[in-house]
User: What shape does this take?
Amino acid sequence: MKLGHINLRGDAADTAFVNGAASGLGQALPLDRNTISRSRHRIYWLGPNEWQVVTDLDNVAELVDKLRRALAGRHVSINDVSGGYTVFHLSGSDVPELLAKGCTLDLHPSVFQMGACAQSGLAKAIVLLGYIEETPVYEIIVRRSFSEYLLRWLRQN
Amino acid sequence: MQRNRLDKGGRIDRSRPLNFQFNGRKLQGFAGDTLASALLANGISVVGRSFKLHRPRGIIGFGAEEPNAIMQIGKGDMTLPNLRATQVELYEGMIASSTKGWPSVNFDVSAINDVFSRVFSAGFYYKTFMRPKGLWHFYEKLIRRSAGFGKAPTAADPDSYEHRNAHCDVLVAGAGPAGLMAAMAAASSGARVVIADEQNELGGSLLCGDYQIDGKPANKWVEQTAAALGGMDNVTVLPRSTVFGYYDHNFLAVVERCTDHLSEAQRTGVRQRVWRVRAKEVVLAQGAFERPLVFCNNDRPGVMMASAVSAYLHRYAVSPGRRAVLFTNNDSAYQTAIDLARSGTTVVAIVDSRPHAAASELAASAGIPVLAGHVVVDVSGRRRVTGVRVGKWSGDTADTVDGTISIRCDLVAMSGGWSPAVHLHSHAGGRNEWNDELHCFVPGASTQANRSAGSGNGVWSLSGCLREGLAAGDEAASRCGLKPAGLDVPQAEDPVPMSIEPLWRVPAEKDPDRCSKQFIDFQNDTSVADVRLAVREGYRNVEHVKRYTALGFGTDQGKLGNINGMAVLAECLGKSIPEVGTTTFRPAYTPVTFGAIAGENVGDLFEPVRTTAIHEWHEAAGAPFEVVGQWHRPWYFPRDGEDLHAAVARECLATRNSLGIMDASTLGKIDVRGPDAVEFLERIYTHNIAKMKVGRCAYGVMLGEDGMLMDDGVMARLGEQHFYLTTTTGGAANVLSWLELWLQTEWPELDVYLTSLTDHFSTIAVVGPNSRHLLQKVGCNIDLKKESFPFMSVKDAELGGVPVQLFRVSFSGELAFEVNIDSNHALQMWEMLMYAGGEFDITPYGTETMHVLRAEKGFVIIGQDTDGSVTPQDAGMHWLLSKDKDFLGRRSLSRPDCVRDNRKQLVGLLSGDGKTVLPEGAQLVIDPNAEKPVPMCGHVSSSYFSACLGHPIALALLEGGRSKKGETLHAALVDGSTVEVQIVSAIFYDPKSERQNV
Assistant: This one.
């Protein structure tokens, strides 16, 4: 499945925005810091006023449209950024150990729990990292221009 | 023949003999040996030569403190210089050599220095080689060869290294009794624990003596504890791992030597790993260093630390001598005397500087004579101790004492007391306090979340170390919010008490200022006389004395000698030791290889390579790449073996005459939205934003607060509250951070959101008189004619049925379009345009042609034609500065320095000979024959051969340049000659800018 990405900015303290985003997306925004809402889409909390929606690429145009309509007239920013990212999925219990070689976060499952996400460095790239499935599966979202570098780093390790 | 090897005992594996070479000699040791213990087992006395005087030196210590046994290990690309033999585990086939001594350690021609040692006093190099002026470069080579340590390999390092981040509740540095106990206590509470120890096995001092814990040999307790720790999921045990630095926020660096102990054939995988540990709490249990005593010829091979002698006996089953004299000012050496006697070594006497020693009964019961109230005054023997002279001493500070008793011996085991290893505590920012009872510095209050335990905290007894380790582990766990498990303190006995009376310097037999052989720092040949000389010459501060005498420099960083040196300095200055203080303890605790520091950030992973979505096409086309920031951009597209110049000339002409195409995807792209977007951008950019119409573009620059050009690019107004900015390739990340900084910290009242679109959009520039035809040919759903889509406008469009954002902008002065497209479709779009462009001879071009085309138009590149000291006025951009608003940097532009008329200003240059392409960076001078140094008035910032104009062009920054058009100057060339240049306008091509407006 090809993944698409939407960057959404708005004020989490504004109930009308939060409700509008939920109705546009068909899924509530995660409001707890550094968490992912996982349902139809994976919605990453990036900051108090920023989210990244990861979803089927084919959905993106329609979702952007729905969001714009649901949030019309509000101070928001909705950008299709599907072209900008490459996504890696890493699975296995050794993944935290592997990532620890290049990431300064504490990825111990007791600390970086299922459903957690963070924007951080991995090796010398900036990534969005999510713990998205219990088995475990980790999602690494990186700017596409860094993807070859990061793939090389992952392979070497 | 391992003639000094004891018949039994030790933690060596006698069933596994290991062959090795030392300075070309074939020798044998056992698994479990260090290189040092194997050398001692083989009766090797001289292992190196001293730094300055080239005196023969032997092994003195058994660990990180070793100043003499500095080795080159391994051959070829894998060689490691300057390792301490005491810390090198022996492996099969090891090739080791002394790093000092030429042609050999046993016959060193520079040993003549020793004869003239009075000449080689403190500051010798400063004093001697200052004159004649200019000859230092000559001296330096000789001195470096004479004084240098090991040799670095010249080829690339064949090994791999890595870094690893780790987080824990409690980090324990050191796995002796205190560290093991602390780790057990913390781990039992459930804490995540990392325990690191520099040695190959855990146990620390317990491996080096006959200790009992809970009624059993201490080794059993170590085994059980190590096994217990190893079996816990919440514990990471790191042997062969040195905690070498303690930084802010409880961040510690540990280097793990993974394969250095294996023979070269057995090594696979990572050689060394640096652990970057972030610990909530830290327990420092690094132990203590025994101090030498300072007496004449105390550096002779065979003079060793008492603790080292015990360690070699117990841990390695090596007796470093046959007839031993102990020299001490404290009780701990009595244990060594007993250890020696039990091993069968003759202990001739214990020379104790104290008139009464409680421990002397222990010696008496072992039948060892004690010379109380005596000191060793001098040592005989050159390559090996042959005897000592001992004198009676009353304890006064008289400068001389007579050595009346001569004793024959081949081993002197000395102990001047103990100094806690306060290094990590000090790295962390903690001060040290002088303890008048223990006569040593102990860690003072901690400044981070750390505590010291055991002998590293001045606790000398085993029972005390265990107790304190347990308490430290419990406390650390509690601070992490965990409940201590309530472990019991193991029972241990302390056979030898510990008392000490200070003896910082043994009185010499003659004037101490003339005795340069009372060594304080063995590695640097720093003696009592050197410290005294430094004081006589006016040095007072311990840091200055260190630098003048070299006390405490080198691979050992004064682990043995520093405290003695400070005490001698204190005596000279008439101050107390705490008043003099210590020098600063800095990371690394012991040397760390560059390989480990670099980790895996070498070769392909040295720096990220960012590529565009069209990169593979450029590669297939054979383009060489230019590194721009982290990006790899196609430089030019050679055809049929063309070189750079031929390709660029062709690309320039094709673009100006018909059609060029360039991948401009690396431009930074920022989406700006919000009700305050106009106000925000007014403050950021120098031009007027509010006047911009929706659908129009503008060239904009942003300034630093100092008024200097910071970044530039085209920006577009996409809606009333919606803008799109482009930045330079290299500046993209910084600009976004800069904008967010202002929004988040200074102007939080502005409702604006920024989103980076740099990677989402790829940008394809279609450039040249046929660019409009091309877009029409592939099918564009908007009217591209000048009237409906004028220069500097933007529209959403479809190109060949694919949605794009179409800009009519130009960085070449030609009719041009920039196509912004979702990067997922960029390669297809590029290929479609290339295919359709065939009839116009569409020519892909790279960064070089882009540079030439823009220079022909006088467009600057921020960072090439500017250097952070160029204002918009300097660059000829007055027209960009709005007069009716404020913007960042505006006030700075009216500073006197920014308005003076002889600032360097952007001008164009033409070579007088019509053919010389000036080197970029060339200095401009008015009169090349002026007296040197020739005054310089500017420099060339960009320079190319313009195929379109048929001659070279250059941009330059020239003092008062704008008022000097038409004048002639000279540019200095690389070979020292000069070429005449004419100052012209910076716009060389199409000065009325008609071509882009068609």
Summary: Chain A has two domains: 3-80, 84-156. The interface with chain B takes residues 7, 9, 49, 57, 75-77, 79-85, 100-106, 108, 111, 123-125, 143-146, 148-150, 152-153, 156-157 of chain A (CB under 8 Å). Residues 54 and 72 of chain A are 22 Å apart (CA to CA). The longest helix of chain A spans residues 15-25.
